[in-house]
Structure to design on (719 residues):
């Protein structure tokens, strides 16, 4: 948006907000969607409308029937799940919030409306922040709860907002997960009562359920049809999405930090800030909703979202813990030969008294193992420099093994029940990040590694355990209810300090695969590891799932040996649709495969602007078909990349044409198949041909074959 258009739109918003204050309505608009709230004569703030703009409705706005408060509190007369439940210092569990003031201001890319609510009896206030991003059609909402009571109050519900909807039917699409089975997509109709998607795992919070969902109104949505809301909570801890259908058939959506075991003690004079609920709307199905969030993420949600990303060679699946300086040196040369930007050293490089030669020891002792790597990290950085690649390092700094010097010295830094036998998840325990001393330790551990080894360009930050043995020695007997929340805040404090000190370092978010994927963490992390499952067939489903919410730029995908029945080309083509990396024994590949991979990296580098920054169109879903197709279209619609995959087609299966999307009908495009194995010729019928966008989008192309685990990548260029 140009500056002048932006300021005109700001004036429009401010005027609308002002007019709204007089008419007691607040209109919050992205231009493509509008959200209308009304302040009642009783001072309560109620939701009236969320959907396509009502710009022509003018005076009719006042006719909109209010659907309910957007921040109902327990004790305020509402009989359903509240957004806020406060037990005041005197033990009174009731709160009534009325509007004190509203204001609007411009923010980068949109507007922010602020509504201050206050309890007339207790010195308690809630400020709602409602942001609207115009170009991306995204809303971001959070609240701040503060008080000046004489003693601490207890918060036992603290949602980010409540959104009510009234439609004839509601469908929920959710993304349940497990290790190596991330983002399994299922949909269901919602009925009267409650459905809750949540997590109470603490640190590896998204291991069983991802913190995002799609609501479909009226009828189930497809990629291109249906009325949908796609939403997520920016929180790297316990989350909960409650979908409650009340006696009137109104669906009440409550995105929140999960209050499980978290009655939060809030000291007088302090503020409890909820994470933001980020959502977008689409009346043309799931595809546009994803594209809205991808664009928003690249601009505002993802750390270094508009920057380049590095291709890499990781050693984890190749060596596991079994490596030494020489072996790593060889791998760095392989990285160079392959043509990737960076070599990433994974788990197993640290610990001396308790060397990390397996996953039972060493976490917490972040010094290179002298016996294994005598020259330490400096020598490895020298080898990387000599090989001509950048260097990246794996860490898991929130964790500790009982077999570690850290545990011996600082047992009271560990989340652990004082009077019971501990139980373990992957033989480790979680450090108590609610404790500022522990935050400082974690910060300085990583800071020292980066300061002493200034060449480190990339960190893979792992987190393999949920919070276990839940008890914080720091919070003691009276404030255990703060632990799950203060843990996440402690983590954010550490990573934001690191970000400020080392803005150029790329950070991969990893949690035993994709056990932590959210825009709360991704404001500090540049990308995330989708899954330890790198079987390319499984990855098609996993990447399809994560692409609902995240842009390709944020999703790390590596070519590995997990499924060697799949041709190297297929494995590479699957990783190619995200942020490409390798975790493979390159020297053991056949010469033709090595040549193929090297050429593929070069091709990828030329296509990065399209794949990483283009608009994603999901064309054919692997769910319920034997194929998958997606395409990315660069801004300006002059270049696109089309991906087609055959998973395990049936004999004689009829192959339907794939209709492309996002092109200009009147433009003519040349189609070129890339990523061909050396010596093989393209069998794609339109290879090298020039065709109109209209043809490609209406008649479609024969992209699929009846071969098993076959793939093709087609570059589409306007001529
Ligand atoms: C889990 C990660 O997902 C893997 O990629 C690897 O880094 C291991 N941890 C190392 O322990």
């Amino acid at each position: 948006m140009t500056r002048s258009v932006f300021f005109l739109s700001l004036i429009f918003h401010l005027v609308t907000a002002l007019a709204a204050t007089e008419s007691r309505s607040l209109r919050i608009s992205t231009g493509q969607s509008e959200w209308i709230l009304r302040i009642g004569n009783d001072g309560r703030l109620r939701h009236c409308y969320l959907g396509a703009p009502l710009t022509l409705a003018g005076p009719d706005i006042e006719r909109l029937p209010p659907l309910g408060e957007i921040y109902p509190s327990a004790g305020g007369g509402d009989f359903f799940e509240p957004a806020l439940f406060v037990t005041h210092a005197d033990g009174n569990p009731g709160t009534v919030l009325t509007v004190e003031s509203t204001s609007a201001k411009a923010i980068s890319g949109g507007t922010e409306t602020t509504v201050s609510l206050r309890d007339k009896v207790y010195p308690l206030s809630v400020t709602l922040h409602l942001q609207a991003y115009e170009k991306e059609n995204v809303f971001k909402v959070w609240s701040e709860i503060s008080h000046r009571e004489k003693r601490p109050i207890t918060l036992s519900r603290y949602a980010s907002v409540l959104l009510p909807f009234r439609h004839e039917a509601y469908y929920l699409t959710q993304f349940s997960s497990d290790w190596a089975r991330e983002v399994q997509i299922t949909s269901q109709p919602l009925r009267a009562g409650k459905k809750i998607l949540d997590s109470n795992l603490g640190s590896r919070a998204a291991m069983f359920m991802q913190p995002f969902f799609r609501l479909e109104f009226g009828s189930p949505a497809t990629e291109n049809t249906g009325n949908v809301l796609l939403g997520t909570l920016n929180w790297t801890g316990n989350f909960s999405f409650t979908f409650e259908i009340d006696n009137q058939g109104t669906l009440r959506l409550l995105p929140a930090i999960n209050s499980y075991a978290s009655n939060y003690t809030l000291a007088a004079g302090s503020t409890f800030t909820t994470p933001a609920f980020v959502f977008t709307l689409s009346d043309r199905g799931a595809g546009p909703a994803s594209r809205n969030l991808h664009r928003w993420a690249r601009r505002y949600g993802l750390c270094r979202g508009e920057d380049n990303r590095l291709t890499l060679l990781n050693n984890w699946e190749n060596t596991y813990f079994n490596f030494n300086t020489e072996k790593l040196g060889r791998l760095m040369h392989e990285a160079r030969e392959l043509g990737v930007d960076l070599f990433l050293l994974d788990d197993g490089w640290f610990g001396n008294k308790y060397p990390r030669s397996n996953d039972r020891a060493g976490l917490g002792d972040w010094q290179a193992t002298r016996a294994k790597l005598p020259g330490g990290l400096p020598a490895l950085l020298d080898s990387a420099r000599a090989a001509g690649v950048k260097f990246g390092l794996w860490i898991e700094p929130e964790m500790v093994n009982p077999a570690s010097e850290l545990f011996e010295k600082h047992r009271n830094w560990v989340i652990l029940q004082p009077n019971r036998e501990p139980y373990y998840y992957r033989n480790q325990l979680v450090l108590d990040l609610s404790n500022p001393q522990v935050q400082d330790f974690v910060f300085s551990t990583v800071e020292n590694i980066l300061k002493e080894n200034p060449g480190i360009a990339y960190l893979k930050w792992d987190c393999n355990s949920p919070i276990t043995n839940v008890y914080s020695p720091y919070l003691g007997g009276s404030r255990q209810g703060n632990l799950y929340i203060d843990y996440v805040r402690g983590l954010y404090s550490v990573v934001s300090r690191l970000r400020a000190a080392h803005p150029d370092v790329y950070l991969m978010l990893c949690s035993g695969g994709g056990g932590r994927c959210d825009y709360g963490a991704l404001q500090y992390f540049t990308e995330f590891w989708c899954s330890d499952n790198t079987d390319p067939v499984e990855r098609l489903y996993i990447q399809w799932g994560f692409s609902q919410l995240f842009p390709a730029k944020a999703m790390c995908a590596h070519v590995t040996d997990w499924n060697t029945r799949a041709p190297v080309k297929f494995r590479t083509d699957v990783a190619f649709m995200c942020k490409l990396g390798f975790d493979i024994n390159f020297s053991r590949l056949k010469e033709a495969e090595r040549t193929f991979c090297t050429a593929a990296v070069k091709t990828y580098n030329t296509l990065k602007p399209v794949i990483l920054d283009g608009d994603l169109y999901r064309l054919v879903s692997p769910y319920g078909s034997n194929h998958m197709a997606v395409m990315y279209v660069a801004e300006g619609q002059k270049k696109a990349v089309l991906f087609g995959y055959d998973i395990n087609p049936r004999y004689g299966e009829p192959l339907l044409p794939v209709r492309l999307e996002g092109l200009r009908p009147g433009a003519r495009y040349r189609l070129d198949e890339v990523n061909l194995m050396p010596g093989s010729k393209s069998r794609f019928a339109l290879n090298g041909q020039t065709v109109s966008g209209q043809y490609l989008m209406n008649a479609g192309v024969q992209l699929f074959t009846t071969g098993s685990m076959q793939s093709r990548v087609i570059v589409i260029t306007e001529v």
